[in-house]
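hey so i finally got around to running both of the ones u sent me last week. sorry it took forever, my laptop kept dying halfway thru and i had to restart like 3 times lol. anyway pasting them below in the order u listed, first the sequence line then the structure token line for each. didnt double check formatting much so if smth looks off just lmk and ill redo it

first one:
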Amino acid sequence: MKLEDEIVQRKFQTESHKLGVNIIYTFNWLNAFQTSLLRKYDLTPQQYNVLRILRGQHPGIANIKLIKERMLDKMSDASRIVEKLRGKNFLRREICPEDRRACNVTITDKGLSLLSEIDKEDVTFEKLFKHLKPEDVKKLNDLLDELRG
């Protein structure tokens, strides 16, 4: 569906203005879908992002600084998210022996198991892009990378 029909806008100032609104609108559309999908696992998109970062580090450790650097939502409070996930037994958080101000964070088997279960839902997420040809998906990825410079 066209953006103009979705937000009932007849005209944009420029194509660049429309592009900016379209990207924001599409982000919110994707985020709402992901939020709905993760709700049944009692996770937020930010918590899911942290678990995926930790799975990428597994079997190694991460610290809060590394998690913050890799998070998609840079405004998220990584320490608070880590604590919530620790409370759900999806990760372990331990004081770093070399620097008592820092914490080592590792994903637990329960966290890995949860991610494996959610991975099965990737097919559902892929269906969002069914209207795009594979070459268009690659081109869109390339254009977004180029946009960010």
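and the second one:
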Amino acid sequence: MTSDILKYTWQFILLCLFQVLIFNNLNLGGFLNPFPYIYLILILPISIGRIPILFIGFSLGLVVDVFSNTGGIHAAATTLVAFYRPLYLKAQAPREGYESMALPHLKTFGFAWFIPYAVLIVVLHHSVLFYLEIFRFVEFFHTLLKVILSSALTLFFIFLAEFLFVSNKRR
């Protein structure tokens, strides 16, 4: 239990550092803004409670907001994603339920389960983030294109992390 807390704390710090120091400075043409820090919300254990995941989501977004000077939009987007995640997992649960310490990884549940899960979480996050950032519908399609392209790039980094850092032993 303590080792899991330390592992996720380390991942929290590492993902925040990567986001703030590297990915926030990676703006390709104004349309490609990757936000792979939300990978932490994706990979938390399925059995984690609603209150802890909301706290983690809010804290993750707040740390990125503080260092990015974005006024709370990351905190709002990650909190919404953290709220939505248990609802999605419950809706997609097998009849017999998930294992008690199941981790939602690509190698654990397979492509057919992980891809819709990751895509929905990332697109929801990016939609909230970019529409709160612009806060008007005048540039709706411009922002929609930004959501789609940034989501694709974020998903690329998430899948890359899944292939590079998640071993087959995690089950």
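quick thing i noticed on the 2nd:
The chain has one domain: 2-165.
anyway thats it, ttyl
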